[in-house]
Write a structure and sequence with these properties.
The protein is α/β, with parallel strands linked by helices. The chain has 2 domains: 1-40, no CATH class; 51-90 and 133-246, P-loop containing nucleotide triphosphate hydrolases (Rossmann fold), CATH 3.40.50.300. It contains 10 helices and 5 strands, in the order αβαβαααβαβααβαα. It has helices at 2-17, 71-82, 89-99, 102-112, 119-132, 146-155, 169-183, 190-213, 226-237, 241-246, and strands spanning 60-65, 85-88, 137-140, 161-166, 217-221. It is globular and about 45 Å long. InterPro entries: Adenylat/UMP-CMP_kin, Adenylat_kinase_CS, P-loop_NTPase. One of its GO terms (biological process) is nucleobase-containing compound metabolic process. Belongs to the adenylate kinase family. This is Adenylate kinase.
Length: 248
């Protein structure tokens, strides 16, 4: 007991006396030891200031839905309505590859070998993009797995919530096949689409369940037309004071 009191006192002292460029975070898991994570913010001195969530953390919203659920359309409208910064993990990976950087070449090799880019790599790209922009942030199609979620929460912050667009597989399939008629995308065929559904179900739905168990999930029926869905989306975001503050 004396050891626990000593550890707690040490952590509290460190929080009070640490310089501003050091962030101290205590593990919230009751059975884990007290851990100190040091983040040197001096390297971010030229970064834009973020609209903050709890404490010093940026305000982050996840938006998730199966292939063809309409995430892209709703993201565009949310960005316009609330001046959010929209980040797509997939697009950030593609941009890094196109840049030809050392990191981009490493990512390209992983993809070419049919392997999955590590959560730490993806989160690092998100962190870099967030340091260059102003929040609140809307992160699209991420986290795709529990490992993604764990890395993001450990290295960045916890989300304000995840917005989940619920659409039946039948409707998503119809939308994607219709898109494939004009998009020319090689993955817009029924066999590939069904495989994507199974991947989403196996990898991403556990994330939805996890955040739901913590009260951090907002579900909406997204089978209607885009205008109706956006009205429902706005109702979800209407009670977010940070978003309204960002408008002024």
């Amino acid at each position: 007991t004396m050891l626990l009191h000593l550890l707690a006192s040490t952590a509290a002292y460190t929080c009070r006396h640490a310089p501003q460029h050091v962030r101290v975070r205590q593990s919230l898991r009751s059975n884990s030891p007290i851990t100190l994570q040091l983040h040197d913010q001096r390297r971010d001195v030229h970064a834009p200031s973020h609209t903050k969530g709890e404490g010093d953390d940026p305000c982050v919203y996840f938006i998730m839905g199966g292939p063809g659920s309409g995430k892209g359309t709703q993201c565009e409208r949310l960005v316009e309505m609330y001046s959010l910064t929209h980040l797509s993990a997939g697009e950030l990976l593609r941009e890094e590859v196109r840049s030809g950087s050392e990191e981009g070449q490493a990512i390209a090799r992983v993809i070419q070998e049919g392997k999955i880019v590590t959560s730490e790599t993806t989160v690092a790209l998100l962190q870099k993009a967030m340091a260059r922009a102003k929040g609140p942030f809307l992160i699209d199609g991420f986290p795709r797995s529990l490992a993604n979620l764990e890395s993001f929460e450990a290295l960045v912050c916890k989300p304000a919530f995840m917005l989940f667009l619920e659409v039946s597989e039948k409707e998503m399939l119809c939308r994607l096949l219709k898109r494939g008629e004009s998009s020319g995308r090689s993955d817009d065929n029924q066999e590939t689409i069904v495989k994507r559904f199974r991947t989403f179900e196996g990898d991403s739905m556990p994330v939805v369940a996890e955040l739901g168990s913590r009260g951090l999930l907002r579900r909406i029926n997204a089978e209607a037309d885009a205008d109706t869905v956006f009205h429902r989306v706005c109702q979800v975001f209407s009670d977010q004071p940070l978003l309204h503050a960002a408008l002024h």
